[in-house]
Amino acid sequence: MNRAGSKVDWADPGYFSGTSRIGNTVRVLVQLVRPPRGHRTLPTTAGTLLILVTIGVGTAAFNSGQNILYLALSMLLSTLLVSGLLSWMNFKGCRWRLESGRHFRVGERSPVYLEVENTKRRLPSYSLSFVLQAERSGERAVLELERRLDPGRRERLQWDFRPGRRGRETLYLRGLVSRYPFGFLKKTIRDSFTREVIVWPERIPYQFFGDKAGRRWLYGHHRRKGEGVQLVNLREYRHGDPLRHIHWKASAKMRRLHVRETEQEHHQAFALWIDPSPNLWLEAGQFERMCSFAASLAEDLYQHDQLRTFQVAGRDPLRVSTQEDLFGVLDQLGSLEAAVPAAGNVLPEPASGRVRFLPGAGGVVNALMEEVQVGQA
Amino acid sequence: MDRLKQRELAALRWLLGQLMFMVSLSGGFALDLGADGLILASLALTALTCVLPSLFERVPAAFWKYAPILLLLVIGADFLGSGSDFLPPLFRMVILLALFRALQIRTPREDLQQLLLTMFLLVITGVLSLEITFGIQLLLYAPLAMSQLFLVNLSIREDGSPRASPDGPVFAKANWGIVFRHASARLDRRTLSAGLVLFVITTGMALGLFILMPRFDIGAALPFPRLSTDQSLSGFSDNVQYGDVVSILNDDSIAMRVDVTGQDPPSHPYWRMVVLDAYYDGGFRVSPAVVRNQRYLQNYAFSGYDLNGRGQPDDSEWTIYLEGGISAYLPSADTFKTLRFNNRTGLIAQDLTRVFLTREINANTLSIRYEGARFGGILPFGPMDFQLTRLKPVEVESADPGYLDEVTYPETLLAYPSGAANREILDRALRRSGFSPRQSAVEYAERLVDYLRRDRGYSLEGRIPEGEADTVLRWIQSGQPGHCELYAGAFVLVARYAGFPSRLVTGFAGGDWNGFENYFMVRNRNAHAWCEIYDQDKGWIRVDPTPGSPGGTVESALATGGLIPDRTWKAYLDSLRVLWFRRVIQFDSQDQALMAESLKEAGRGGLGWLRERWKSLREKLDADLREFHIPARWAGVMVDYLLPLTTVLLLVLLILLLRRWARQKGFEAIIRDKAGRLLAFRALRRFPEDRHHHQLLLLRYGPVQSWPENPHQLLRQARKQAPSTSSGQARNQ
Q1: Residues A12, A24: Cα–Cα separation, whole Å
Q2: pLDDT for A338-360, tens place per residue?
């Protein structure tokens, strides 16, 4: 059984995990007697009934010596045995993996994919069900393979997961279930696959007035080109461009003259600063609200090219210039816990453009910049 | 190509359910449970619903609402009306419940209920009938049930709920042609093949389990309900009138099969069934005294009366499969050591005449086994036989049964009819038969048989003239040919008049020898009547006065052509039944021990053979090595260690090479073969010579090196290409 966290890893029943054929055979035989951990085979209602009928027929056969009853008993027992064997064979050669998107946000649906492949050479697999569960939120889904899975074929099953809580979430494949072939036995492979994801805070409505602190709230504007040092773009040389703007390396590579375009130096953007100290956030709900507020604000500021840095007290500041940086911000907010910042890290002095979050009365969260309230959620 | 839709699965499930019901029901005809009409009606209704599923639409919904209540009332009334006889109403109840389910549109859960009911029905019919039809039914039922379970499993979700709700119009408008076409088109051939293999494995495993499953000592077995009937063949009851035995002589159906193990069985065994001691109203009957003295037993094995070891050796076993409805009286040998049944059985032993009968007439085949059975024609003395030496012939008014209150056993063995006309005939017979008071019973029996056979023949239609005397005595006087009952009756009366106690016996004599499985097929036409005469030195001597009674052993009779083995197709079919009884119904711990012993012997034989071969090889090698002047010590090492080691290494090497070769050759051959078949198929359907065609040609004829990386995938793609879409538009898979 493989426990995997990355996209490319597959999990399988672990029947043939070794490289030696003899070792695998021995393992399979041992597993038939003593199933490995997480593998369970339980009778279904029909199976229980069959077992009871078998016991009844067996009792009658042994007590009466009637060979017809012995014959019926043999047939019932062999059906049970073959059922167990086929149930095992149905799993054999199957492998599966969980795939999920990058974004999980509280209250929003995100697809989780379960890809299953039948690597058997000849026989198809039937009636496979996958029970997926999110550990923290307790959400559960049963994905059923309603069609036959031919040898060498893959199927992709989708679960629209809607997280209920922010934080680190573990998606479990709680069970791979099959009642194949006759529905007598429910064979389950438990806990065979886990995948850790970070659920971002919920997006909530808020108010933010950046211009209150003398900043212009630049709706619809993007990064401005100017005379700064931060590279924004490369473009072909045009007549009249200053020669010192020529990017010689790029020009040599592309065999045409290219010039640098740099960011306007005095571009006014915001820096978000989060203090997760528990003595500040006494109410868990307010802390959650702060995370949601910060995440929503960070996303919107980034959309409008107004987010410069993000920092959680006690951690290194994160410069936000690309989408991945924003995802990093949201990941940090997703996994943020109310905790005392690392020792020696002092609260910075209010700086230009730095937005802080503080609890307000009645469960609201206030955003302050240069000690001026600029927002609320 | 889409998979089968849920509605098509539901239709197939429904059809399988109907078939299972019909298969399980068909065995009911073998039972005499008064349900033949119900079975016929159920079969007809089920078949009708298969052909015309639209009938469902016409049944008002109210019917299905109130039908269960009605059904319960009918079943309850049936049980109440049947009294203590619970088997027939139980059987009818299961039929009715299964029929109710068969006529309904079923959910997967209800399909499982129906499967359980039909399985119950199947087991009931098998257990009560014990017929080979159960084996055939089981072989038909098992794949149907397994397919049904498979489809039910495909139709339910992980939590057990159905994937699709039952849809009435699916059946009402079901066009089986379309459903079958879809099913055959969408059925995965590999799954079908795997299903067949699965069925073979299941059956094989079941057989293995059946053979290996431990059988407890049969002495611990509980009595098992058996079906009884009120009907029996004439001639095998307490009261036999002239013509009763003869009336079934034209019946060619089989009455019993007799399986013989041991050596030298007689070619014409006499199976005693009823011994009639009292002469009454022109016929014979079992006297009330014999009935009063009978014992009631309940066991699985009964000791015979052969306490002096007169029986055959213990390995001689005669297994009789007596058909149902023949008689409560059991056919028995003259003497035997033990009589065994499969189960604890209620038995009646008439010790005075040494006859056994079951308490009821069995409605289906009863198998019994005699150990140490003997057919020598002499029965040892009975418990009251010592009184016979001082008894004289008794004249009785045989038309009045009241005489049996005064004349009781063993006096009944010397009773003859009163009346001058009767006495006159008996006197004449005595004179003509050469009776002398100094003659022993055996000597006089021979003379009497000669007299009765003299100038007479055998005829089933004896013409007996009218007169005052009793029928059988008039027949003696007439000199007309007659049948076994007349000969036996005449012998008994004349012998009694002469002072020799005698009695009439009915049963079976002889039989046809089945040439396929070597057993006696005793038919109803083998029914016979003969006599037993008492000899004060030997006991009861069998005498068969009917002309043409043969003797000898089976072996000698077959050698001389006296017994012609039956090798017709009817005999072959009959031998299958005996095989069924031998190998299945009678299979017990002794057979298991025998099989284990045979296997052990075979193993020992094989090992012995190998040991011998190894010994001779070793000796030869030793001799060869000595020729090369190799010291004996080194020669021993070479032969004992190096040679086996080298052989094993060579074998391993050979296996590895063969596997490698098979893998390469097998893969290549399979791909080429598949490509060839696909090309032929495409040519037949006039596919265009497109990209697939050229790639298939490459797979069929090209070098392996030029094949694509995954030839299986290419074959799959080519297979899925339909003729209409061959221009490149692939059909959905």
Answers
A1: 14
A2: 777 765 554 555 566 688 888 88
Residue A223 has pLDDT above 90, yes or no: no
Is B586 an interface residue toward A (CB < 8 Å)? yes
- Report whether B328 contacts B233 (CB < 8 A): no
Which is higher by pLDDT, B544 or A31?
Answer: B544
DSSP label at residue B312 = -
Across the interface, whether the CB atoms of B216 and A70 are under 8 A apart is answered no
Residue B460: both structure tokens together:
């089933």
In chain A, residues with a C-beta closer than 8 Å to the C-beta of B130 are 68
- Mean pLDDT for B540-561 is 78
B153 CB near a chain A CB, below 8 Å? Answer: yes
Which parts of B103-250 fold into alpha helices (H)?
108-129, 132-155, 168-172, 176-186, 189-212
List b or e across B642-657, with b for residues whose CB sees 16 or more CB atoms inside 10 angstroms: eeeeeeeeeeeeeeee
- Contact with chain B for residue A51, Cβ under 8 A: no
pLDDT at B436 > cutoff 90: no
Domain architecture of chain A: domains with CATH = 21-200 (2.60.40.10), 227-263 (no CATH), 268-376 (no CATH)
CA distance B311 to B372: 5
Tell me the residue type at B210.
Answer: F
Single-letter code of the amino acid located at B579: L
CB nearest to A64's CB, from B157, B221, B713:
B221
Give tens-digit pLDDT for B162-178. 776 555 545 555 577 77
d(CA A331, CA A328): 5
Q: How big is the A-B interface in CB pairs under 8 Å? A: 134
Please list every residue in chain A whose beta carbon sits closer than 8 Å to the beta carbon of residue B122: 72
How many angstroms separate the CA atoms of A255 and B344, rounded? 106
